[in-house]
# Entry
Amino acid sequence: MWAPEYKEFSKDARRLYEKERRSKHRSLFAALEEFANLRAGKKLWKDFRKHWPDFFPSWNYDEIEEPKPNAPYDEFDELRGERSIATIADHPEHVAMLWTDVTPDPILGMLLGIVTPPLQSEVETHEDAYYTTVAYIPAHWYVDWDDGALVYRGTCGFQDALYLLSRESWRAKVCAKCEYKFIAKRPAQKYCSTDCSELVQRELKLRWWAQNGADKRRKNSRVGKRRCTARRKLEHGPEETR
Ligand SMILES: [Zn+2]
# Structure
């Protein structure tokens, strides 16, 4: 049993952590959004690392740039009894699935580091084989008995971003114009950026003009003619008097 003061301290630490995580949600979402749209390629990974150096533990990044036989993840693989071939280089594909798949389990749990992917020796189905390609970064989680809450703490920005998104999964949307996977600010948001929404507005106007423009031009020209005749009459008087 924990001493009451330790419990209080632990609750304070938890609240502080959760507050900090929420306060960072904009940058966490920006990184996750860029990540979900990442294509394969070392150069892209280097750029991503430069933009978001703390999004993954540095050894995860190193692993992609220069695979080392004695990377720290060996420790986990030893615990699991078998070396995994998966790295976070496979992550974008799995993460992108969250935007399109209605039932992302159990991969979401694996990405969050709370569900262990099957070992090679445990593979029985095609799904199992696929799940072995998910890189596993164990996260911290525990049950707060007094609060009746499951407390989750990611071990990196990626996991915290994913956790926040999973609490508000409506935010994961695909742009109706350019198909970019984005994290929406409002439920009604359909486009990833003002560029895309303005482009659509312009296209709608052009389409409307193409369909209705001829009519409008004809009407305008009739009104124009009437105005001209009226002006002529005003300036020169009725034609019979000239
Ligand atoms: Zn777009």
User: Anything to note?
Assistant: Residues 194-236 form the longest helix (43 residues).
